[in-house]
Amino acid sequence: MNHRYTITEGTLINENKSCELPFALVFEENGVYFLETFLKEGFFEDEDFSSRFNLNGITEKGFEIEIRDLTFTLYKHKNYKAKFVCRNYVKLTEKERDVPKEEDNTEDAILFVEIEGFNTKFADRTDIKKYRQYGEVDKFNVNFDHTSCTLYIQIEGYKENYFHLIFSKSKTNDNIQIDFTRTGGYGRLTFEHYKVFKKQFLGFLSLLNGGNVYVRRELTGDFYKVDGSDSQIVYNYSFTKHSNTNTSDYVPINEHHSNSSSIFQQTFRNCFDSFYHNDLELELTSIVASINSAHSTSGIHQAYSILINALEKFCSNHQKSINVFDEHLIDNDIWENTVKESIFKVLDSKKSLINSTNKNAFGIFKSKLGELNRRKNSTVQKMYDLFEFGCIPINENVENLVTKERHSAVHNGEFGENSTEMFINYQKLDHILRDLILNIIDYRSYRKSICEYATLEERKEAYPKRKSKQVTYVCSQPLRE
């Protein structure tokens, strides 16, 4: 393990008790932070192994340190030595410098976010010119090293909705860094504002990435280094490192810089706001995580099972969101006063014949026929409702998924007669789930299919062009040279 910080004074606390710590060490291994210290006699109790603790303290370099959600991994009764693992973040705060703020009581802005697991070809280039004593050399030296785009998100309670993002490689590791500091002509995104949509932001990045994306560091405060390597306040998140070498290219941001240029410019400005608001009801972020988890799972049966569960959850969430589900197939007054009465007359006339082989048959049949007009919100109907909402064409491929493959997978663990057919059916389900989300948020850029489940004409008919809503971009920062 790598030693990161030495704490010279601190307090370990939970909701019931606290303990002063004169000394503690913080280590990091593979992205996870650990704490070692000695507790005072009598502090530890056996039930503490199921509790979470926080620590507030000062490091030997004078930084304030906060560690959230520490859980015990070891306790020695003989010398009171304790070891903890951090299950949230380690926050470091440098004491205030004498740097005047632009105005009093200004909220801290989010400055940089370092994300892990994100793969992309950068869309924008930096032109480098070199000169020697006799003039310019290396006239054509182009490096595609960043992607610049605008983000639109309108949330109730926040006026500003238009922000500038720059994606580039981190200066300290192989992760991707997002720069929020270039605010000229845009809004200033506060840290509290960012935290409101952080979950959806990660879900949106994971959708584009085809693999789950995680925040490794967040930088905020009054001052920072322009390369994004440090700031007054740094949140270091504690979790095992993710490389995401196997991501889906369905949204091909990692294929060519021209693709990523088009995709980033369209999606962050035109699609993210819709993703955020639909996520509040449909839990899109959770669905995206399941799709990406299935993609990285080696066993195709397990992967298909994950996708089927995601689809059924998607359907249930959609039904809850519309809250107008009609449980009757035909108008219930018509059913009760005409059709049902006629059916029961025929049934009553055959009662003796029906009961001749089974004395309970008549009652069972009558009970089932009485429920004939109730849809009972079946999974099949919920799927068709979701597909209509998500502009998925209903053709033979899709009908087979709903009526045959899903049922066989759930009840028999099979979704094809051979490995080739199972692979095709898995890809079909994967693409339909991704298309549902992309269509709902009105994504109109590149898609890279492995197996087509519908023709281009069927797609166009099911997914017509929508009128672009008029939005007002609100920003506070003046345009700078």
Descriptive report:
- This protein has 481 residues and is α+β, with helices and mostly antiparallel strands.
- Helix content is 35%, strand content 25%.
- A 6-stranded antiparallel barrel has the order 1-3-4-7-6-5.
- The longest helix is centred in the middle third of the chain and has 23 residues, at 300-322.
- The two termini are 47 Å apart.
- It comes from Lacinutrix neustonica.
- This is ApeA N-terminal domain-containing protein.
Concise overview:
The chain is of the alpha+beta class and 481 residues long. It is 35% helix and 25% strand. A six-stranded antiparallel beta barrel has the order 1-3-4-7-6-5. A two-stranded antiparallel ribbon has the order 11-12.
Globally, the shape reads globular
Helix content: 25-40%
What is the residue-averaged pLDDT? Answer: 89
Could you give the count of β-strands? 17
Distance between the termini: 47 Å
Provide the succession of SSEs.
Answer: EEEEEEEEEEEEEEEHEEHHHHHHHHHHH
**Rounded radius of gyration (Å):** 29 Å
Amount of beta strand: 15-25%
Q: Which regions have little confidence, pLDDT < 50, spanning 5+ residues?
A: none
Q: For the largest beta sheet, what order do the strands appear in spatially?
A: 1-3-4-7-6-5
The largest sheet, given as strand count, sense and whether it forms a barrel, is: 6 strands, antiparallel, barrel
Counted by DSSP, the helix tally is 12
Q: Give the class from helix and strand content and strand pairing.
A: alpha+beta
Organism: Lacinutrix neustonica
Protein name: ApeA N-terminal domain-containing protein
